[in-house]
Write a structure and sequence with these properties.
Elements: H1 2-73, E1 114-117, E2 120-123, H2 127-139, E3 145-148, H3 153-167, H4 170-173, E4 190-195, E5 198-199, H5 207-215, E6 221-225, H6 230-233, E7 238-244, H7 247-255, H8 261-264
Antiparallel strand pairs: 1-2, 3-4, 4-5, 4-7, 6-7
Length: 282
């Protein structure tokens, strides 16, 4: 009887020991699984943090690069060494390129023949296409009015003085207004539009702007200072400012999705040099 009792107790304690071992194994498995999951989560969180930091650095570096290009694009101009030579330099031709680094020669250039539309002078060569485009816009129910076209050097000076007064400095004005001798308006090839009471930037949100985006090239006009290309043009975007370059060139430029005249003519824009991505690929 005693032996039987001892045998039963041995079996009992053996079973208890086995159960405890199993429980310990289960606990160990749960703890190790938890620790592994925690380590994996910490690693994932670290990777996310590292990736986020890398993205922030990339954005910061890009912003700094953009700011450097823009500062270069809007730095003061040099009247003593600005006259371009070679192609696209003759202000009497519709293919002329004028910007902060390419002044008119002479600085007080004015076209020989002007015509008036809505009381505003334009170079005679653009008159027919300008009138045809504005009439087409009226027929489409999106009329615009001409607010400015040819301005002589003195009128351009007055315009820039207005920008200086409104922005508070020559530096800020240079981002919005071409100095006398550097303005497309002096060629008579540039026009400014308004729609109803909407003048300047608000034009971008109008159906008139949408129409111009689609159809202006058919009449030889391009948006001269598009949004996002300030480092090429040297100026803030101007949704109201259009430049005549002729129907053939305007349509070709649009078909190739080229946004600026500097890119199309393969001329370094203010602050842009050959080799910069977006320029070298043209």
């Amino acid at each position: 009887m005693i032996e039987t009792t001892r045998h039963i107790w041995r079996i009992f304690w053996t079973d208890v020991f086995v159960i405890l071992l199993c429980m310990a194994a289960c606990v160990s498995f749960v703890v190790l699984s938890y620790l592994d999951a925690r380590i994996d989560r910490q690693s994932a969180e670290q990777r996310i943090a590292d990736n986020t930091a890398a993205i922030v650095r990339i954005k910061h570096d890009k912003k700094q690069a953009d700011e450097r290009r823009y500062v270069e694009a809007t730095r003061p101009i040099d009247d003593t060494n600005c006259a371009p030579v070679g192609k696209y330099a003759d202000p009497a031709r519709i293919d002329v390129v004028v910007n902060k680094r390419r002044c008119l020669s002479p600085l007080d250039y004015a076209p020989q023949e002007l015509r008036y539309y809505q009381g505003i002078p334009v170079q005679a060569r653009i008159y027919d296409d300008l009138v045809a485009m504005m009439q087409a816009m009226s027929a489409a129910g999106v009329p615009v009015r001409l607010t400015s076209a040819f301005r002589d050097r003195q009128a351009q000076q007055y315009a820039c003085e207005g920008w200086i007064a409104s922005t508070g400095s020559q530096t800020e004005a240079d981002k919005n207004c071409a100095r006398p001798g550097y303005s497309e308006h002096q060629t008579g090839l540039a026009v400014d539009f308004a729609a109803g009471g909407c003048v300047l930037d608000c034009l971008r949100a109008t159906p008139q702007y949408t129409w111009l985006t689609v159809h202006a090239a058919e009449y030889g006009f391009i948006e001269r200072y598009p949004l996002g290309y300030e480092s090429f043009t040297g100026y803030h975007a101007e949704a109201w400012h259009y430049r005549y370059i002729g129907r053939e060139a305007a349509i070709d430029m649009k078909s190739k999705s080229i946004q600026t005249l500097e890119q199309y003519r393969r001329i370094p824009g203010p602050g842009i040099t050959p080799g910069v991505p977006g320029y070298a690929t043209l």
